[in-house]
Specification:
- It contains 15 helices and eleven strands.
- It has 414 residues and is an alpha/beta fold.
- It has three domains: 252 residues, Vaccinia Virus protein VP39 (Rossmann fold, 3-Layer(aba) Sandwich); 70 residues, no CATH class; 61 residues.
- Strands 1-2-11-10-3-4-6-5-9 form a nine-stranded mixed β-sheet. The protein has a two-stranded antiparallel ribbon with strand order 7-8.
- β3, α2 and β4 form a beta-alpha-beta unit.
- It is elongated, with a radius of gyration of 26 Å.
- 35% of the residues are buried.
């Protein structure tokens, strides 16, 4: 028997968890009150979900699918979106049914993962369909700026045209979803919850919720499972309703929701977006050591975190994250190149700057010259020493010369 009142409840934002069959609980929810529905139903693959029967006859499973879809559509607002995570064997039926209900398909996305279940009878399944439908395309909530990512044209090919767009170097994600943290939540994955089957990665829900809802909106998950939807929705300051058939699973999910997400890599996301919006073809190193470029970069980082709804960080955090992304190769090889000489600077200025760097650096490389340039306090001390060694020297060029020491980990020949 379904619980008609929430079994678990949290405030700020409101998070309600119901226990029971969603077909009995959804009629109790106000019609048209939900802004976003995300559904990851049982696939009918005979998985052990406790008392839930996951091996229904095919006709019965399709009837069940139509019933919960109808119940979700009743509570979905006119501007709302519904996302369905579904495998190959039922994706087509869901698409046809939602089209028959006069909904518009915005995307048929694919969640691609490399960790598929091994088999010899046919090709290994390494994807799930992510179906995105809306009631009214003209009224739908859509926030592309919340989910933009660096484009291959910018990171891989260094295409200068990407710097002349309204969102330099950035694009809305492709309809095939994969990458860091996008794999199935298996084994020793930090997100793994014991006794939960088929978890959705947090980055997956982060993308869906950011793209199709606003702060304060109501998000519904009719198959709560491990609680990813409400966990991420709560972190993003959305209200949420989760419905779970199993009391034990609901209790475990609620504990996770209270703990919050395991990982949000929003700082890396913000720094990448900020870099591509200001670099103008310059390397990561130049953005960090050029005072004007760095100022624009730091301001862009603050703006990006504001968009993501996260507090601002210290300058070092932004600079060091950018440096880490460079070392990890996440910005593309084109931005790891050696810094070019500036044609307007005299050779004598370069020579003086190098001589100054030689005297500062001594005969051994500091523990981490990159950290010196990223840390405003250490960088100031470096600059003061340069001015003392060579009054009037071009500080930017001294910084550049000092960075060249790290190439081989020792002094360069004069």
């Amino acid at each position: 028997m379904a619980e008609k009142k929430p079994v678990y409840h949290l405030e700020n934002p409101t998070t309600d968890i119901y226990v029971g069959d969603n077909r009995e609980i959804l009629p109790e929810i106000e019609e048209g009150s939900v802004d976003l529905v995300f559904a990851d139903p049982p696939f009918n693959w005979d998985v052990n979900y406790g008392k839930w029967q996951d091996n229904m006859p095919r006709d019965e499973y399709l009837k069940f699918t139509h019933e919960w879809l109808d119940a979700c559509l009743r509570v979905l607002a006119p501007h709302g979106s519904i996302w369905v995570n579904i495998p190959d064997d039922t994706a087509a039926e869901v698409v046809v049914y939602l089209k028959e209900k006069r909904l518009t398909m915005m995307n048929w996305c694919i969640w691609h993962f490399r960790f598929g279940q091994c088999r010899n009878s046919n090709f290994i399944v390494s994807k799930v369909h992510v179906l995105y439908f809306v009631k009214d395309p003209a009224k739908r909530i859509w926030n592309p700026d919340q989910v933009r990512e660096p484009s291959d044209r910018a990171t891989t090919y260094g295409d200068a045209r990407t710097r002349r767009t309204q969102t330099p170097g950035l694009r809305v994600p492709l309809d095939v979803w994969y990458g860091e943290y996008w794999g199935r939540i298996q084994g020793n994955n930090k997100e793994r919850r014991a006794k939960h089957e088929n978890q959705i990665p947090e980055v997956y829900m982060d993308r869906v919720i950011r793209a199709c809802s606003k702060e304060g909106n109501l998000v519904l998950d009719p198959f709560l499972g491990s609680g990813t939807t409400s966990t991420v929705a709560r972190a993003l300051r959305r209200r949420s309703i989760g419905i779970e058939y199993s009391k034990a699973i609901a209790k475990s999910a609620f504990e996770r929701i209270k703990d919050g997400p395991v990982r949000f890599h929003s700082l890396k996301t913000a720094v990448m977006r900020a870099f591509f919006s200001v670099h103008d073809g310059k390397s990561t190193e130049e953005v960090i050591i050029d005072d004007s470029l760095r100022g624009a970069f730091l301001k862009a980082c603050d703006n990006e975190l504001t968009k993501l709804g996260w507090p601002h960080c210290e300058e070092f955090d932004y600079n060091w994250t950018l440096e880490s992304l460079r070392k990890e190769g996440k910005l593309g090889g084109v931005f790891n190149r050696k810094m070019k000489r500036t044609s307007s600077v005299k050779d004598s200025d370069f020579k003086r700057a190098k001589e100054t760097a030689d005297k500062i650096m001594g005969t051994r490389l500091p523990k981490d010259i990159d950290r010196v340039m990223c840390d405003p306090g250490l960088r100031l001390k470096f600059d003061e020493k340069a001015k003392k060694v060579a009054p009037g020297v071009n500080i930017y060029l001294v910084r550049k010369a000092a960075l060249n020491y790290r190439k081989k980990g020792q002094r360069q020949d004069k």
